[in-house]
């Protein structure tokens, strides 16, 4: 088990100049050899060029107070013979507090739900068809008097969340395409400041996210952080240069946490931090590349001669990152749970020509790890290394 976050030691470029030993006068004749990592010199953090702000990190759920909402129901009789059922529906809905208007359906009428704001009051209009079978029919559902409680729950949900309804279980976290685009665009901005070695909550506050999209730490996540203690909840890997979404996911994943966007009942947007074992679908650590891997990160497929004997895995990964300028980050918490001690892993590679990509795959697989090529929200490629589910290759 890994007991500290000293495991990630990605080397400064200046300390890696002497790692290449020339076999011949040409680059193709060089054998790439890794020397032990000697530590990274601290460097001053360059202030960001844009005005700094502080991300609002909250402990209580924002927007839980439902705004004033009025739900109106209109029943469109599909045929004159449905008037009796219309009376029954009107009577039952009136008892529930939703007195409907009933009229005959016209050819231009279409069922649906719409929302408008009138002088600060949210008004949700439900137009449903009362068919010949006595059902109340909407584009997404149909209800009978036998399942009146389900229709009541549906109307109550509209009263709480508006036209979009409860976001739980909906695609895109229950956001509209516009809302998801707003979140994704915000999380695509690059992290300019160094957050490594800061307490997690301090780092969250320095992400410079807009104030109208605060970070909300759920009760279960906060309880987990208190259990771990502040000394074990510092940011272990650098996220400077990553987009905010991937950076946030990496920092939280170190603590067995994740985040998801949430639309509150009042329609506001926030980012909620939750444990990885929660039922919620969480924001991923990076995304699948849109293009082929060789187009996404061509440097990884460059051929070069390599000869490795008893080299530390972390030293090798640091060297590859420096040579390719492709960041490599690890699922530290997941690796620790698999009892993989990264400091103890030594790797070998016979003298032969290979690519950076194949070299990474071989040394990680032998160590019980899996490497994936990802892109962050801004389209920048990186390598994400996680533990294998079934142990190292060959075991």
Strand content: 15-25%
* CATH architectural category of the largest domain: 2-Layer Sandwich
Distance between the termini: 19 Å
Rg from Cα: 28 Å
Average pLDDT, rounded to a whole number, is 81
Query: What structural class is derived from the secondary structure elements?
Result: alpha/beta
Give the H and E element order: EEEEHEEEEEHHHEHHEEHEHEHEHEE
CATH fold-level label of the largest domain:
Ribosomal Protein S8, Chain: A, domain 1
- What count of domains describes the coordinates? 3
Biggest sheet record: 6 strands, mixed
Low-confidence stretches: 1-52, 60-64
Total count of strands: 17
Shape: elongated
Number of helices: 10
Helix content: 10-25%
CATH class of the largest domain: Alpha Beta
Q: What does the model show?
A:
The chain is an alpha/beta fold. The chain folds into 3 domains: 13-43 and 289-387, Ribosomal Protein S8, Chain: A, domain 1; 57-64 and 171-275, no CATH class; 69-161. Helices cover 24% and strands 24% of the residues. It has 10 helices and 17 strands. The protein has helices at 83-95, 148-161, 177-187, 200-205, 219-228, 244-253, 293-296, 313-324, 332-337, 356-365, and strands at residues 20-21, 31-32, 57-58, 69-77, 101-104, 112-118, 121-130, 136-138, 141-143, 215-217, 257-263, 269-275, 303-312, 328-330, 346-355, 369-375, 381-387. The strands form 5 sheets. Strands 4, 5, 6, 7, 8 and 9 form a 6-stranded mixed beta sheet that branches. Helix 8 runs antiparallel to helix 10. The protein starts with 19 loop residues before the first strand and ends in an 8-residue tail after the last strand.
């Amino acid at each position: 088990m890994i007991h500290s976050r000293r495991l990630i030691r990605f080397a400064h470029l200046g300390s890696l100049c002497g790692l290449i030993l020339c076999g011949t006068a040409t680059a193709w004749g060089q054998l790439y050899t890794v020397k032990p990592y000697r530590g990274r010199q601290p460097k001053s953090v360059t202030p960001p060029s844009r005005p700094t702000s502080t991300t609002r990190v909250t402990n209580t759920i924002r927007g839980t107070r439902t705004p004033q909402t009025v739900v109106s129901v209109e029943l469109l009789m599909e045929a004159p013979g449905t008037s009796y059922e219309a009376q029954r529906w009107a009577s039952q809905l009136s008892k529930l507090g939703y007195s409907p208007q009933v009229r005959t359906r016209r050819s231009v009428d279409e069922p649906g739900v719409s929302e408008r704001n009138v002088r600060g009051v949210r008004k949700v209009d439900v137009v449903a068809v009362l068919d010949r079978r006595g059902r109340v029919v909407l584009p997404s559902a149909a209800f009978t008097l036998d399942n009146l409680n389900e229709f009541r729950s549906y109307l109550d949900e509209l009263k709480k969340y508006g036209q979009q309804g409860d976001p739980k279980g909906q695609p895109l976290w229950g956001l509209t395409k516009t809302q998801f685009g707003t979140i994704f665009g915000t999380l695509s901005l690059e992290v300019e400041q160094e957050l490594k070695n800061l307490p997690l909550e301090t780092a969250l506050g320095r992400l410079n996210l807009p104030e109208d999209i605060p970070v909300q730490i759920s009760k279960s996540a906060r309880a987990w952080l208190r259990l771990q203690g502040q000394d074990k909840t510092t940011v272990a890997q650098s996220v400077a240069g990553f987009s905010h979404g991937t950076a946030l996911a990496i920092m939280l994943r170190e603590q067995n946490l994740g985040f998801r966007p949430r639309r509150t009942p009042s329609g506001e947007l926030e980012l909620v931090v939750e444990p990885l074992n929660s039922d919620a679908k969480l924001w991923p650590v990076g995304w699948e590349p849109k293009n082929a891997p060789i187009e996404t990160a061509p440097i990884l497929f460059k051929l070069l001669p390599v000869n490795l004997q008893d080299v530390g895995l972390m030293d090798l990964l640091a060297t590859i990152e420096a040579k390719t300028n492709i960041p490599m980050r690890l699922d530290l918490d997941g690796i620790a749970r698999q009892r993989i001690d990264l400091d103890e892993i030594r790797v070998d590679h016979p003298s032969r020509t290979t690519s950076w990509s194949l070299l990474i795959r071989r040394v990680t697989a032998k160590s019980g790890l899996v490497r994936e090529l990802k892109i962050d929200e801004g389209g920048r490629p990186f390598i994400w290394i996680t533990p294998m589910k079934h142990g190292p290759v060959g075991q």
